[in-house]
Specification:
heterodimer; A: alpha+beta; five-stranded mixed sheet; 31% helix; B: 71% helix; globular
Chain lengths: 154, 440
């Protein structure tokens, strides 16, 4: 008799715990989606991004990799760079992208193999524009100021 | 400033949600083990509680190590995997107690493998760079089952999908699943420029799905499916097909792939229906099991009766009679769950699996800038979801029955191992890595 009551209680408890698990799961995921929404909100105010390119049959096509820009973005082989590049033709501290007076500047940091802007070697800091292609070692990056959706609107 | 404060407040809550989920799971397991203990008075107490103790150890050690090795990992995936596998332990303890020791050993091994998959440095690069070698090795193992294959049950005529090493049986197709997902992700990520050739010069001209692009992947995938069909492991073959379609669709963005893939699956089904007696039997008893309810359709009819007996709240653990279903502890574990925990239990289990799937997709979106990682996350979570869908649908007679296991819950070491390796990889992909180098 008592065993049956205990078993019934345990059954109820197990059902309640299942419901409880679903509630906790819901709360955890809800909270997580909320914090992701916040991150997306802040990321909307991004400066722009670099889109990695590769040469295929003479055409330059996207590899699908993109790197968000900071106001001061360093590129190079050293892992301390904002965008580390593992390419033997890149120097440890290769180039710098900086936002100054509302314009973006590309600067070569005395790299061994040089930096190119639209296939022209960069000798002194130059202003770059939307869609310019930056070459570092064997890598090419396209400079994009806005997310692709916004760029289409403009 | 506001967001900074919010993020600071986030970190303790984040930590809590993982512990909280594990805590509720542990309470659920304790309650159910207690009920089982009461129902079987003559039992050896120590060996009865041993699985629960080992489960708890796995959960605590796993959580500690994950927190240390992967700070900021997904807080939901690991507790859900532990909850489902713990529930699986209760089911096996209840349905086939003499298999419980073996299953708990596999669980300990699997959590170890998960930690390795989550923390081993360079693992992703290996999966990516040595894809052909890995896949060939996996296919070799699978082909080995044709020659050396055995079935642990020892029945004549049963599918021989296992490789025996003394007392241990391994099912190579389970491990091959992960290798195949990694292979597809790695290959399709490399072909991304060709598939999405919307670059500078080739605007408008899509190479798309030319044979040069999809040829090699089609070949390797075809080889695996041929071996599976040869071995009559049709459930796994269907699973491979679904994952292949989903990944190809995501990589190329052609919705035509899904439509034509669905049609192809249908045609393959019709051909299989004509050629294989196994398939004909499965489809026939799927369409109408009742004329043979006590012969060839016995299993599925008993499974349906178990669902009916379960009702909304179930009979309570150990108080139903799911053992009328033959081999209930492996493929039909979901029916036993339905009988003893009812609709509530089914919904809880399905929500957990669905939550795992959405977390995987979310990781894929997180990794959008990196095709290999994104495709791998989507492929692995699709594997788990499609496999669960196939077997739960089969047990409920919504789909024809295919002999795949329910991830985490069914009895079976290789299945558990593969599922936990998938969890480890997903956890690893969910962690924001500080510096990832650009590879030319």
């Amino acid at each position: 008799m008592t065993t049956e009551i205990i078993l019934l209680l345990l059954r109820c408890l197990s059902g309640l715990l299942l419901v409880g698990l679903l509630v906790v799961l819901f709360l955890a995921m809800w909270h997580d989606f909320n914090s992701v929404a916040k991150v997306v909100e802040t990321r909307r105010r991004t400066y722009g991004r670099l889109v990695a390119m590769r040469e295929v049959d003479g055409h330059e096509v996207m590899t699908g990799e993109t790197y968000p820009l900071l106001a001061l973005t360093s590129l190079g082989r050293a892992p301390t760079n904002t965008i580390p590049i593992s390419d033997h033709f890149a120097s440890g501290e290769h180039a710098l992208l900086a936002m100054r007076d509302g314009q973006w500047w590309l600067e070569d940091r005395n790299s061994r193999n040089g930096t190119t802007l639209n296939d022209v070697p960069v000798t002194e800091p130059v202003v770059i524009m939307q869609g310019d292609v930056i070459g570092i070692g064997q890598m090419k990056f396209r400079f994009e100021l806005e997310a692709p959706g916004n760029a289409a609107v403009r | 400033m506001l967001t900074m404060a919010a993020q600071k407040a986030d970190s303790p809550r984040r930590w809590a949600s993982e512990s909280l989920l594990l805590g509720v799971s542990a309470a659920f397991l304790v309650v159910n083990f207690l009920a089982l203990d009461l129902l079987r008075p003559g039992l050896n107490r120590l060996s009865h509680w041993l699985p629960l103790v080992l489960w708890g150890t796995c959960a605590v050690v796993g959580k500690r190590l994950l927190d240390r090795k992967l700070p900021g990992h997904d807080p939901v995936i690991f507790p859900l995997a532990m909850f489902l596998s713990g529930w699986g332990l209760v089911l096996i303890e209840r349905l086939a107690p003499n298999f419980a020791d073996r299953q708990i050993l596999w669980l300990v091994l699997s959590v170890g493998a998960m930690l390795l998959a989550a923390a081993l440095p360079h693992l992703l690069r290996w999966l990516r760079n040595y894809r052909y070698s890995l896949l060939v090795a996996g296919l070799g193992l699978l082909a080995g089952t044709i020659v050396l294959g055995t079935n642990p049950s020892g029945q004549a005529g049963a599918p021989e999908l296992w490789l025996g090493f003394g007392p241990i049986f391994v099912q190579p197709s389970e491990i091959l699943k992960i290798i195949l997902a990694a292979f597809l992700a790695s290959y399709l990520a490399e072909q991304y420029p060709a598939m999405r050739a919307a670059g500078l010069a080739s605007e408008g001209r899509r190479l798309g799905l030319s044979p040069r692009v999809v040829g090699p992947v089609l070949l390797m995938w075809g080889l695996s499916v041929v071996i599976l069909v040869w071995q009559r492991d049709l459930g796994t073959a269907a699973l491979f097909f679904v994952v292949f379609l989903v990944l190809l669709y995501i990589a190329s963005g052609h919705s035509l792939i899904l439509v034509s893939g669905g049609l192809l699956l249908l045609i393959a089904g019709i051909i299989a229906y004509r050629e294989f007696s196994v398939v004909r039997l499965r489809v026939d008893i799927w369409l109408n099991p009742w004329p043979e309810a006590d012969a060839r359709a016995f299993q599925i009819v008993q499974s349906l009766l178990a669902f009916a007996a379960g009702g909304i709240f179930g009979q309570g653990v150990g108080q139903g009679s799911p053992v009328y279903i033959p081999v209930v502890h492996s493929d039909f574990v979901f029916a036993a769950l339905a009988e003893e925990w009812g609709l509530l239990g089914i919904v809880a289990a399905l929500v957990c699996i669905l939550a795992l799937f959405t977390r995987g997709l979310r990781i894929g979106i997180q990794q959008q800038g990196r095709p290999f990682q994104a495709l791998l996350a989507v492929g692995l979570s699709t594997l788990l979801a499609a496999q669960s869908l196939l077997i739960t649908g089969g047990v409920l007679k919504v789909l024809p029955l295919t002999g795949v296991t329910l991830p985490f819950m069914s009895y079976g070491g290789s299945s558990l191992l593969a599922s936990f390796i998938i969890v480890g990889l997903l956890l690893r992909l969910s962690t924001p890595e500080a510096n990832h180098a650009v590879h030319p």
